[in-house]
Amino acid sequence: MELKAQFEQAASDSKSLSQKPSNETLLQLYSLYKQGSVGDVNTEPPSNPFDFVNKAKYEAWMAQKGKSQETAMKEYIDLINILKEN
Q1: Residues sharing a CB contact under 8 Å with residue 38, sequence separation 6 or more, in sequence order
Q2: Would you give per-residue pLDDT tens digits along the chain (86 residues)?
Q3: What's the pTM value of the predicted model, to 2 decimals?
Q4: How far, in whole angstroms, is CA 12 from its chain's centroid?
Q5: Ordered domains of the chain (ranges, CATH)
Q6: Distance, CA of 16 to CA of 54 (rounded, Å)
Q7: Angle 23-37/69-85 helices, nearest 10 degrees?
């Protein structure tokens, strides 16, 4: 199966994990998914200083800056596979 198809399957699998991942893991999944599907951050940071959720998501994605989409896809797939085993 090609990488893009594996990535899309992992995204689908993420919706049916037996246990909800920790917030830290959810941020990691989000940032890897965004980096794998979009690439480097292409939006402005949230302007509301009290929007902690979107700020955390933005910062997590920003931390992936420079990582290739292919590498992010592989890391996302690997993380989903680990979560599926638990």
Answers
A1: none
A2: 799 999 999 999 999 999 999 999 999 999 999 999 999 999 999 999 899 999 999 999 999 999 999 999 999 999 999 999 88
A3: 0.93
A4: 13
A5: 3-85 (1.20.80.10)
A6: 23
A7: 140
